[in-house]
Structure formats: C-alpha cells, structure tokens
Amino acid sequence: xxxxxxxxxxxxxxxxxxxxxxxxxxxxxxxxxxxxxxxxxxxxxxxxxxxxxxxxxxxxxxxxxxxxxxxxxxxxxxxxxxxxxxxxxxxxxxxxxxxxxxxxxxxxxxxxxxxxxxxxxxxxxxxxxxxxxxxxxxxxxxxxxxxxxxxxxxxxxxxxxxxxxxxxxxxxxxxxxxxxxxxxxxxxxxxxxxxxxxxxxxxxxxxxxxxxxxxxxxxxxxxxxxxxxxxxxxxxxxxxxxxxxxxxxxxxxxxxxxxxxxxxxxxxxxxxxxxxxxxxxxxxxxxxxxxxxxxxxxxxxxxxxxxxxxxxxxxxxxxxxxxxxxxxxxxxxxxxxxxxxxxxxxxxxxxxxxxxxxxxxxxxxxxxxxxxxxxxxxxxxxxxxxxxxxxxxxxxxxxxxxxxxxxxxxxxxxxxxxxxxxxxxxxxxxxxxxxxxxxxxxxxxxxxxxxxxxxxxxxxxxxxxxxxxxxxxxxxxxxxxxxxxxxxxxxxxxxxxxxxxxxxxxxxxxxxxxxxxxxxxxxxxxxxxxxxxxxxxxxxxxxxxxxxxxxxxxxxxxxxxxxxxxxxxxxxxxxxxxxxxxxxxxxxxxxxxxxxxxxxxxxxxxxxxxxxxxxxxxxxxxxxxxxxxxxxxxxxxxxxxxxxxxxxxxxxxxxxxxxxxxxxxxxxxxxxxxxxxxxxxxxxxxxxxxxxxxxxxxxxxxxxxxxxxxxxxxxxxxxxxxxxxxxxxxxxxxxxxxxxxxxxxxxxxxxxxxxxxxxxxxxxxxxxxxxxxxxxxxxxxxxxxxxxxxxxxxxxxxxxxxxxxxxxxxx
Amino acid sequence: xxxxxxxxxxxxxxxxxxxxxxxxxxxxxxxxxxxxxxxxxxxxxxxxxxxxxxxxxxxxxxxxxxxxxxxxxxxxxxxxxxxxxxxxxxxxxxxxxxxxxxxxxxxxxxxxxxxxxxxxxxxxxxxxxxxxxxxxxxxxxxxxxxxxxxxxxxxxxxxxxxxx
Lengths: 811, 164
What we know:
Mean pLDDT of chain A: 95
Oligomer: heterodimer
Strand order of the largest sheet of chain B: 2-1-5-3-4
Structural class of chain A: alpha+beta
Largest sheet of chain A: 7 strands, mixed
C-alpha cells in the first residue's frame, strides 16, 4: 500500500468531501453511551402523530374486512345465509369456513413436549361446523367501505343449534359437556416438573400450609387492537400486521397458504403494545392474506375493542392447590403445586406451554430442596389463553410469595425474616435449583436490604396501628421474586428440551454505510420497549459512533436476517447480545482495515474517543467513516472482502434470571372493601443497565399491569359462556387516578450469560407485583379476621371476606 | 348511504369533503384527511386515544360526528408542534420524561394534557391524575406521563395550553 494512504489518504478525502456535504459522521460526543439515560430515538415521530401503525397505512384498491362472530359460546352451525350481505353496497364477497378448504392445515400450536400427549383439535381461521366460544369467527365480509362492510356483516344470517357450554375449568375436568365432543374429554394434557423428593420433603416438615391460589383470567389489552393489511400481488404476499412475531407469522403464512417463503414478507410497523397478546399467529392474519389472494385486492381488517376483548388471546386463568412444608425455624422443606389451567376453546401457538414456564421458577429465590409442579390443562368454552406479560411466571411467583407469607404467619415470623431464612445464598451462584435450571446470578439479600433502606418497617408498623384507631386499615406486602427470561437456549427450550418447535437464538446484522452511518438489524420485534434507542447505544459504543447515526431496524422479514421476535423479556439479553457481537465483528474488521491503511499491526489498533487509533499514537487513527470509506474502496488487507457489514446469530448457553424486592402499601376501606395502593417501592436487579430511563419505564408499566390484575381487572364469563367484560366499560384497566407514583431503585448483579451483563426487565414488574399487593391487602385485613384472600381484590370480594370473617367493622 | 358536504377546519386549514352523516370525526380526520396521528383504541369512549381539541377543549373524536364539528377549530396532534417544527412544551416533556412507550395512547394523552393545563396551569399531582383518568395507557403505568405533565406546567406555567 502506498505511502499516501492513511490520515491524508483517499478514504479520508472521500470522508472529508462527504463531511462537507453534511453526510459523513465524525467522532461521537462521548464514547460510553451504554448506561446513559438517553431520550428515546423513536419518540419524535410518536409525540408528533407521525408514527405509522397498521391502520395508518393505506393502499389503493383496499377492501375492508368485517368478521361475523359467534354470539354463542358453543353451538353447531346449521346454516349460513350470506345473500343479503352479498347485496350490500360495495360488498365484493362473503366467505365462510367451507370456502377455506385449500389451507394446508389448521392454525399452529408449536409445543410438542417429548413424551407428553397433548390434545390439539383443529382450529381454523373461520369455524367449520361448530363454534366453541363467543367471538369465534364464522364468516368474513369484504367490501369497499369501512362502515358498509360492518352493515353487511350484520346481514349474514347464521342459524345456530346451541350446545351445552362449560366455563368452569374444574367442572370441565369432571366430564361432559365437552368443548370438543370428538375428544371425549376436556383435558388437554398433563405435565409435571418434579424436583427432589417431594414426599420426603413433607415428611421432614414441622408445619404444612395448604391453600387454593387463583390467578384469574386477564386480558393483554394493548391500546392498539390487532389489525392487518394484506397485499397479495403477482405471486408475492406482503402483510402488515400488529404483531410481536413477524418472523413466526411469515413462516406459518408460507406453510398454510402454500406460498414459498421468500415470496412472503411480514412487516410489523409501529405496534401499539402487545403484552403477549400479539405473540400469536392469528386466524385473521391468515384469513386476510387468503382473501387478498382470492380477490386480487389488498385487504384490511382492523379489530374493534369489542372483538379484542372476545378474541385476542387472554392470560392466566389458573387454579392452584398448593402445599408448603417447613421446619419450625421457617426453612422450607417441600413445595408442591398442582395447577389446573383453563386454556379456553383451543390451543393457540403456545397455550399449553404457558403454565410450564412458571414451573421452572416455582421455587422462587429460595433454596427449597424439593419442588414439584403438576399441571393439568383443560378446554372450556371461552377465549383461548396464551402468553400474557409474564406468561406463567406471574402465576408461579404469586403462588410462592403469597403462600410464603401464609407460612410466615403460621410460624409467627415476619415476612422479611422468613425470606432471609430461605434465600439462595449469594455465594451459591450460579445456582442449580431443584427445578433443574441454573440461576445465572443473584444477590437477594442485597435487593431486600436496599428495599428496607427505603421502607422503614418499624415506623410503618407504629403508623399502621395509629391509623387503625382512625378507621384506616393500612397494610404492607412484600414480594421478593426471581424470574426466568431471555428465552433462548435452544438446547433447553427446543425440540429436544422443553419441546418448543423453534430455536431460541437471535440474529443481528450491522451495515456501516459509505459515510459511516450505521444500520443495525435485529431479529427481535419491538413494540414500545425502546429497541431503537437501547440497541443503538450498544452498537454505537462498539463501533465508535454516536447513537444518533445508528438506525435500528426491526419487525420486517424483508430486510434483515431471519429472526425470532420479541417475547419473554428476550430482546436485550438475546437480541442485544447478538447485536453486540455483530458490532464487535465490525470493530474487528475496522481494526484490520485501519492497521492496513496506517501500516500498523491490527492488535495495536484500539477504539477510543470515536477513533480507531494506533496504541500510543492517539492522533494517528481513523474514524468509522474513514474506515467505511476505505472498506468500500476495497482498500482492505489482501484476502479480506471489501465492504463493512456483518451478520451474527447468537444462541446463549442459559436463560437469565432477573430478581428484586418489592413493597406495596395499601389502604383498605372496611366499609366499602375498596383497596387502594398508596405507596409502591420497587428494587429490581436486571444486571447491567443499558438505558436506566427505559428500565424504569418498563418497571412502572409492569407493576401497573399486576396491580390491575390484583385489584381491578378480570375477564368474566357467565355460566352460559357469555362474555361479561366485552368492553373497556366492563373491563377495568387502571387509570392514572387509581395509582400513586412509584419509587424505583436498582442493584446491579451482572449476568455471566452475555457480554452485556444484562437481563430482561419487560416482565419483571408484572411478575413481582401481584403478590406484593395481595400480601398488603391481607396485612391490612388481619385485624378484621381476614387472613387469606384470592384475587381480584375488588371491593365486593374484600367486603364479603370481611363480613364472612364474622368480625364486622369495629365501631 | 348518501353523502353530504362537510366543511372542517383542522389545524388552521380548511377542508371540504363528502361524507355520510354518520361518519365519526375520528374517521374523517384519519381516513378522509390523512391525519393518522389521532388513534382509535376502543368502541366506548373509554380510552381517549382519539382525543382532539374542539375550540381548544379536549374532546374524544369518536363521540363526535364529523358534521357536528363544522363550525369549530379542530386541533389534532399534528397541529401541536410549531410551524417551524418546534415541539410543544408538553411534547418536549413527554420526550424528556419517557412519558410514552408504544406511543399509541400518546397523541390523545398529549391533547388531554394540553386541555388540562389550559384550564389548570399549575396542577397538583393529584389533579393531573384525575384530569387524565379518561385516557388509558397500558405501557407506562402513568408514572412518567404524570411527571411529564407536571414538568410541562413548570416549563411554561400559565401559557402552556393550546392557543386558539
């Protein structure tokens, strides 16, 4: 290489020209963006109304779709008369289940646990022969006008022959009526995760506490309902859909519709929240694509809230019989949980797997030698359940944290003391626990100590007593939780492990452009979590640029590599790590290019202050823009490819296990039964922080999701299977007026599983909070004789418990 | 269904369209005028994602027919930033305080907050919380939204509302 290449070389000149044109990028303002509370890159478009959600996208010639849905919980379809609907203004077609006979198969269920039989009746985008829950789609009307197709849908006459319905999972397990007659049972499957010797553990116990713990059914309820825009043209299919999992959707569209995978593109544009309810391959997605192909027109379907409440998959709905055995000193010897999980009418993508996710952390953050979870799933004539924020882990944490407090009361120990006596010791990590997984890192004493720096328990107790004399029943509840997230390790989650038919890896691609601007592709698919900012911070530091010039692209199967999407608090720990590794490769190549151009050894090149410099000669170096200029001019070492772009696939060795300690203070009005959260303190440990602003936001939202479950929200069906909570009038999402501001703090115990040292935080608040609220309500009610109560802690239920405790309200 | 002419003045611009009398204002804004910043999140006027201003007062545009909005000044989220792109103080505060995550409730939340501050320029936290109870957010737990509204009030004090 000639002498004139280097600081004054051609690449540099090109960069200078570009810089003069305002296109090239110099050194970043600082070199360490990870850990900074940067304002989010995605926000300017969102706060100005310039975001682009599915319903904001319009294509010429689009037909609107409206679905005809079953008003019956369980019925045979006798006949469907669409003639009047077909005559509606601008109506192009009406299709029923009989028309969709060319699908390659029913909607997918992707869990095949080795050695376990799972009843999995076919589930079609439009019902065939019978409907099995209110909202089950029966027909689709397509037409030119958004309002007219709704009018036409009301003119589709469906004759139903009602069948007996079952909505109570315990009755469903006993026998007929059967949701799927041909199965002769409502049982879906049985699955167990034994750890240790549960009987021996109980034999050792001095005291055994047994409770029935109900995690009632809730809705994901993102404020953006579901929606799709399908465009099949000239043999290629594009689907815009409000989804968390565009890559899964593409795969199944390809399979079910018989379109070669490279001709299917799925785009998750701006997505208005998911909370698990958009982790799905929905019938409406398949149906819209099928209709678009059939009619050769783009097809749009935007869900109404009423449809969302009846048909977007719901969560929880587990009844558990739990037994906790302990020695007199509080050391737990055995913990046995038997779960009856209500799956609703069908298995969706991961329905039967969900309770099992909780089983792996059923022991919580405690050293319990014998832990066993036995799960039975049943069908009922209700909307299917599947993953909703936390997915099995909030239920498990609720069981262990509430029962632990019951045990503490039995033993006359404080909730703090019983936790300390059972914590997995800080020096035990990585800690193999009875459920067979290895907790990566933890320091449970530290988070609890930090929590108690914020919460003066002695002062609280005296205040509590003083308030009682004024008629205010105040209580405090604790939850020290751990959870399993960063859903990846394929060796554990995959076909030979737990049995999910998908790899748990994640992909990343980093492209440095000519001018040193960077596009970073991730296979995750954010929908509010701030990936564009946090991932830009990660990449920026590793390649020496400002996050402002790192554009993060997600949610489009047509741009980056194959991905595995966003759920299970996996995006950072798996996808962020994939990007970090990818960016490291860019840096490695950059060092080689710099060494080549500056005639130095690659190992002598270091990245500092936004420049790849020769060690010891900080003024001799190249910025990423200069490196890119050289790389695209093929001024690279002999044998090295030109360009500056890398792709990485990463499959970690283990999950990550965030943890923390939460305290909730509630006031209960004994006359009305109304409980209100008056203070909430959360100390979380999600390893190293990438962006503390985003972490706090995730924690706040997660906590409120669980406060909603504990105090306000409940999906309710009557005995006939009619949905009682079909709108936001009846389904009580918490509003700002019911809530306090939150006090959050963090401890930092890095994960050894990834180079970022980071764990997930998207579900932590939701997993932690419902037992803290419940324990607080019980603490408040104990003087009134109420020592145990199940969620939802609505005024009616709390008031009834107070009455039945036969103590009445003290005068 | 037959249509009638409808005149709407939105963000200072006059529009004429042919619409069914039953057309909701939110659909007129979104589907007819292309102002898609105003969102729809429910069917029952509970979520507030569709909040716009009619003559400076926050109104859920899913509860108003387009024909009912003929003689008022309509302001949507697209009309909140200055013509030079300068963000409204409430927008700036939402950005600074991480008052949004998925962004779907955000336009309605900002419009509701602007209405609140126009009426009560120096609200307490409790007043902000009750003032926003007609707007649902599933992401933020409201903590940072409330903080943003209080901060916006501090930045601009009594002039923070929408000038109209």
